[in-house]
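Here is the promised in-class demo. Please do not try to memorize the tokens; focus on the logic of going from shape to residues.
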């Protein structure tokens, strides 16, 4: 007498955000990417490409070739893509990115950290969490890597709102 159903649509949250922004403001860069490609997951590749300073075409080529840095940048783009529209700040984004389900970040010396480590992937750090803090922007937080916080606040966040300007509105 029961029916268990499940539905999964790729990046449905971002599809909804793109459409709402289009309804409200008459334009949405996210919506344009989705409609042109037919793949909402392309938003992660596009933002990942921006974070490492390459074109989307080059990013897609590198991803297809199995480039580890391109893959790490795409993975690093996911949390901001989902978090910033909901008001997630740097500390929460860094904390949420530490989960094992987010993947593994490999340091230059081969050491592996669980989760996304922005300081290693985008900041050039040799290791994550060398310097930790329990306060960011005047608020208490779990112990977090200062360099990851700086990368998110000063690199990722500005790049995000440049990539998807409608989200700021």
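The designed amino acids, position by position:
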């Amino acid at each position: 007498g029961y029916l268990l159903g499940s539905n999964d649509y790729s990046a449905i949250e971002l599809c909804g955000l793109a459409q709402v922004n289009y309804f409200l403001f008459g334009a949405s860069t996210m919506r344009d990417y989705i409609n042109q490609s037919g793949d909402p997951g392309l938003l992660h590749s596009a933002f990942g490409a921006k974070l490492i300073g390459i074109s989307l075409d080059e990013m897609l080529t590198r991803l297809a070739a199995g480039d580890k840095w391109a893959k790490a940048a795409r993975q690093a783009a996911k949390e901001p893509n989902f978090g910033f529209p909901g008001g997630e700040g740097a500390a929460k984004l860094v904390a949420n990115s530490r989960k094992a389900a987010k993947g593994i970040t490999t340091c230059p010396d081969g050491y592996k950290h669980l989760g996304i480590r922005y300081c290693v992937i985008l900041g050039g750090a040799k290791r994550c969490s060398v310097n930790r803090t329990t306060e960011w922007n005047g608020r208490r937080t779990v112990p977090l890597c200062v360099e990851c916080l700086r990368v998110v606040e000063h690199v990722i966040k500005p790049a995000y709102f440049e990539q998807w300007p409608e989200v700021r509105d």
